[in-house]
Design a protein that fits this description.
SAM-dependent_MTases_sf; elongated; C5_MeTfrase; 32% helix; methyltransferase; Cytosine-specific methyltransferase; alpha/beta; DNA binding; Rossmann fold
Length: 443
């Protein structure tokens, strides 16, 4: 069977689908010891703790000699939309090590995965560089953004995939065709399905199944009664969080800057954020409602409002004591002769409680912290097992032995950095189809 080398393997989310379809995982490498321990326990023994820039890794690659396929989810922190976009982040260039391995092992194909921000940030320059770099060593590269929800994963997770095939091949790689409806969320662009087997840009909506939901995936795990491995939380958070939990309903989040039914405002939770008078509420709501209007400035995230504008828009005379009280309580800050909401008080959304009957938001490494996401029904964060299920891992895949706090925290990180195994198996099937046809042609 086809020999696979996996780089930046993590705990093996991308590799599982290939293993399930009979590919031979001859070598996996990651510089994270916890990732490799979990990989060896659940996926395959041929896994090693390696820094891809080290001589030891390069020696391993030389010893392998040749393989049919290289997989690699090279680090994405410098590109991620969830964190700072660092043009000079050294992790942004680690794909060069993957290129070096491809050049040395000369596989028929390689598959690389990264965050979709790679295409959007820095004007897409890195996507072009990656395509150009692999082209120079003899590979044709196809690029596509896939959303895991479209392939039966109960989670919105958009990632960019690179599939490289040797220029000497006349075969075409066909991306896996979506099987499930993938509703577009606010602020997202529509994904075009490229190179489908039947020559369609989009599958027939009538043939698509309903998107898998959070309820479909974890409704049997509501109680923390140990009925599944890793069904634990790290139950340590500030006492004031409990007051916030009580105020956030399904489909809502703590958010001061967007006036909608989905927003719960900090001033509505005095036990956590401090009491305010009815007039002070009017001041805060006036600023929140108008701070992004262009007539008050051009700062994209919001502008301070002068006192005169606050009074005109609110319809009453504001006293210095009312403003001073809001400043002292941390609700307001003074800036450029005006007033704006302060710090985390006007975050774009924290303590988000998703809807039971919708797909999950993207599972991140911070899901252990209820400050980011809450269970749809319970006043707690998602357990590690719930995150694993939403990511598409089978319950037989264990992320910890003793379920200590350290192991659980590492498990959340490994799950959040993974490719959903359900999606990886769809990609593996498309890869197998390509390689078999190419083998027949070569014969």
């Amino acid at each position: 069977m086809y020999k696979v080398v996996s780089l930046f393997s993590g705990c093996g989310g991308l590799d599982i689908g290939f293993k399930n379809l009979g590919f031979n995982l001859v070598y996996a490498a990651d510089n994270d010891k916890e990732s490799i321990n979990i990989y060896k326990k659940n996926v395959d023994e041929n896994a090693f703790v390696r820094d891809v820039t080290s001589e030891e890794f390069h020696s391993d690659i030389s010893a392998i000699g040749k393989c049919d396929l290289i997989l690699g989810g090279f680090p994405c922190q410098g590109f991620s939309k969830a964190g700072p976009k660092k043009h000079g982040d050294h992790r942004n260039t680690l794909y060069y090590e993957m290129k070096s391995a491809v050049e040395a092992l000369s596989p028929e194909m390689f598959i690389a995965e990264n965050v979709d921000g790679l295409k959007q940030n820095f004007g897409g320059k890195y996507v072009k560089s990656i395509v150009d770099d692999f082209s120079r060593i003899g590979y044709h590269v196809e690029v596509s953004i896939l959303d895991a929800v479209a392939y039966g994963v109960p989670q919105h997770r958009r990632r960019i995939f690179f599939v490289g095939t040797k220029n000497t091949s006349s075969q075409i790689f066909y991306w896996p065709t979506p099987t499930h409806d993938s509703p577009i969320r606010n602020g997202e662009f529509s994904i075009k399905v490229v190179g489908s087997l039947f020559g369609e840009d989009h599958p027939n909506p009538a043939t698509l199944q309903k998107a898998k939901t959070i309820r479909d995936s974890i409704s049997d795990l509501v109680e923390l009664n140990g009925q599944a491995s890793d069904h634990k939380i790290i139950d340590s958070w500030p006492e004031k969080y409990n007051y916030i939990f009580e105020k956030i309903s399904q489909g809502q989040k703590l958010c001061n800057v967007r006036h909608s039914e989905a927003s719960v405002y900090t001033w509505e939770i005095p036990e956590a954020f401090g009491c305010v008078t009815s007039n002070q509420v009017k001041i805060l709501e006036t600023i929140s409602r108008n701070r992004r209007h262009k007539k008050f400035g051009s700062i994209p995230n919001g502008n301070p409002l002068p006192l005169s504008a606050i009074e005109e828009l609110s319809g009453f005379s504001v006293t210095s004591g009312e403003i001073e009280g809001l400043l002292n309580a941390g609700y307001l800050k003074e800036k450029d002769g005006g007033y704006d909401l302060k710090g985390a008080m006007f975050c774009s959304g924290l303590f988000k409680r998703p809807l039971w009957d919708k797909p999950s938001p993207t599972i991140l490494t911070n899901f252990h912290n209820p400050r980011y996401f809450l269970h749809p029904e319970e006043n707690r964060p998602f357990t590690l097992r719930e995150c694993a299920r939403l990511q598409g891992f089978d319950d037989s895949f264990n992320f910890s032995l003793n379920e200590t706090k350290k192991e659980l925290l590492a498990g959340y990180r490994l799950v959040g950095n993974s490719v959903p195994p359900i999606l990886s198996e769809k990609i593996a099937k498309a890869t197998l189809d390509y390689l078999r046809k190419d083998k027949v042609r070569a014969a």
